């Protein structure tokens, strides 16, 4: 391993932050192949990092990969929650019972 402890720590942080290997290599001042080797050695490969970056589902608490696809926009159109696929389906199902007329009524009330 040609990296110092500091470089390894930086590599882990940058990997988790989603930096490309080429960016990590240039910031650490090492060869791209060293970044590749270090990431697989450390278990910080791209799919592993994606698994590590999870947040608890705002509904049931099960881990949800932290990416935009799992960010659910609540019916108010402003609040976003991280929901697992199962809870998103549940919320969509519940929302399907509210028709557009009810939203119109709310809009009138707000005015
Ligand atoms: Zn959930």
Structural notes for this entry:
It contains 6 helices and 4 strands, in the order H-H-H-H-E-E-E-E-H-H. With 111 residues, the chain is mainly α. It has 2 domains: 47 residues; 44 residues, no CATH class. The radius of gyration is 21 Å and the shape is elongated. The mean pLDDT is 84. Zinc ion (ZN) binds next to helix 5.
- Chain-averaged pLDDT: 84
When the domains are counted, the total is 2
Low-confidence stretches: none
The biggest beta sheet is recorded as:
2 strands, antiparallel
Q: From the helix content, strand content and strand pairing, which structural class follows?
A: mainly alpha
How is the largest sheet built, in terms of strand order? 1-2
Topology:
Elements: H1 5-16, H2 21-28, H3 32-42, H4 46-52, E1 54-56, E2 63-65, E3 71-73, E4 80-82, H5 85-95, H6 100-110
Antiparallel strand pairs: 1-2, 3-4
This protein binds zinc ion.
Keywords summarizing the entry:
mainly alpha, 6 helices, 54% helix, elongated
Write a concise synopsis of the structure shown.
By secondary structure, the chain is mainly α.
